[in-house]
Amino acid sequence: MPIFTRSDSTMQKANVLHEENMTKATNARWIYISLPLMLLFTVSMIDKSNINILFAERQFLQDLAISDNVIKGTLSSVFLITYALGQFFWGFVVDRIGAFKSGMIGIAIWGIAMIIGGVATSVTALLWSRALLGVGEGVLYPIALTLTAKWFPQQEQGKAQSFWFTGNAIGPVIGIPAIALIAASFGWRESYFALAIISFICLAIFIFMIRNKPSEHYATNAAEVNYIEKGQGVKKTANIDTGSVKSVLTSPLFWILTTVYACVSIGFFGFSTFLPSYLTEAKGIDFVNSAMINAAGYALAIIVQLVCGYLSDRWMKRAAFVAVASVIIIGCFVGFLYTTNTTVVILLTIILLSVLYMPAPITMTMLHEVASSQVMGRISGTFGCVSYLVAAAGPMVVGFFSTTTGSFTGGFMALISFIVLSLLLCVYLMKKGY
């Protein structure tokens, strides 16, 4: 029987450690987490914007007796309200039962909502469809932020969130023409049913690919799990108990980040809602070309987000990126308001649309330095709920000031004040090392 000495045992342990270090880490987090999350945000963006495209479809308006803008506004607003409140509700659910189970329930709900929309014969039924869609899609940010916190080390969270957030830009690029084509060729109800089928396909993909933690996933190895765990942790917020919901919610830093996100969201929703009307009425650009300008802006937004996500991880100066974006947004706003050159207007509009998207994922990345993965569901739910309730005021702000002053300039200048506030808060965050 062989006899092992102390040195033999030490050498065996060293060999085991050497083999573990030599094992190449898998990249399951990028394939099985980022990709399906991006797909979910892409489809969700198409689902929520489906009705905005159908507002221009005559048969849709006739079938449901939609005759004025008050009804259209109500159908849009009810979604934003339930979407915001849904994020708060789902935040608690995600922390309780996990992102995997929460995601399955939420995606199923929004698939059912699209079916209800497809069979609707009245505005009331359509209102229920929109409200249920908001509740279902409200699960997205709590599960996405929770999964990012658990699946990605701190030095990759900017890239990861920018990657899945691009779904919000990809959605309009492919969704606007696709929905219009389906509605024109087959009917508006068929556009709802098609999106319902796609939503349930997303549910199947989610079930197959997503797991709550790296250690639970069939595609990860020990090297990847170890790499992720070593890169996690909060570095800049030693004065905050990041694992306590109460501590995070009473932290000024959380509310600064929430305010920044709300300000850039007000700018986005306020601008994007009135952009087609502004280009057509104030700048003399026809409807078709204005749609092309929108598509170009969203396409460029994909590139801007990915590049900035990568660089923010490389330099770890996330607040600086949001500050620079705020400066560009303000400059573009002022520029196209006071120029009469159509080419300049088009270029500034495309740049503005692309940059308006970028601050959101970068701001959410800073949220990981305030809250741990154990409470991220509740924290992100509160963060999203407050931000989107405030952001819902964006279109109303533009509408009110535009009506009061008699031009779009007054409404857009009101939006600029929120972006200025975002800039000032980001300068403060930069001084704090964020």
TrEMBL record:
Membrane-related topology note: Multi-pass membrane protein
Transmembrane segments: 30-46, 74-93, 105-128, 164-186, 192-210, 253-275, 295-312, 319-338, 344-367, 379-402, 408-430
Annotated Pfam families: MFS_1
GO cellular component: plasma membrane
Main location: membrane
Keyword Iron listed: no
InterPro entries the record matches: MFS, MFS_dom, MFS_Na/Anion_cotransporter, MFS_trans_sf
UniProt keyword terms in alphabetical order: Membrane, Transmembrane, Transmembrane helix, Transport
Subcellular location: Cell membrane
Protein name: Major facilitator superfamily (MFS) profile domain-containing protein
Span of domain Major facilitator superfamily (MFS) profile: 33-434
